[in-house]
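Journal club prep — side note

Before the paper discussion, L.F. wants everyone to see what a predicted structure for a comparable chain looks like in token form. Sequence:
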Amino acid sequence: MHLKTLIKDRRGAAAVEFAFVAPVMILMYYGLAELTQGMMADRRASHVASAIGDLVAQDTMINTSEMNDIFNVGKAIIAPFPTNGLSMRVTSIRKDSSGAIQVMWSKSSGSMGVLTTVASVPAGLIANNESVILAESSYVYNSATKQALPNALTFTQKYYLKPRKTAQVTWSTS
């Protein structure tokens, strides 16, 4: 008699169903939160490359002090993410009258080294006797909880910008 009443009793059914569903929903929530953070880091890395390239392209001549300020802007853009995984590089590339591509100057911050040669640029980007600014960023993103994204992700971005005020942005040692 007790067995029949126990089988028909449905008072704890919702709690049992919740116990089955809750862990899956919590994992989905944390996974989506981690993926969203990763996407935000990727967007910010892209914005860093775009902004540092744009700042250099607006100038006619740049020096070490200005370049350090520009790299500090890049670090401010990546915030609130840690800046220790951020690397940036700005390079002035020129195509001479014979069509040969040469690096005029290159400056970097973080683990990215300076660029000494460029094999090619996108077709039709530079005509002979013109220059372009290549801005690059690389960001190593480590998830805070390491549940959905247990390994570090590296986001790299590359932008080509034409100088705005002059044919070529020159490097000044002063």
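L.F.'s comment for the group: The mean pLDDT is 89. Keep this in mind when we get to the figures.
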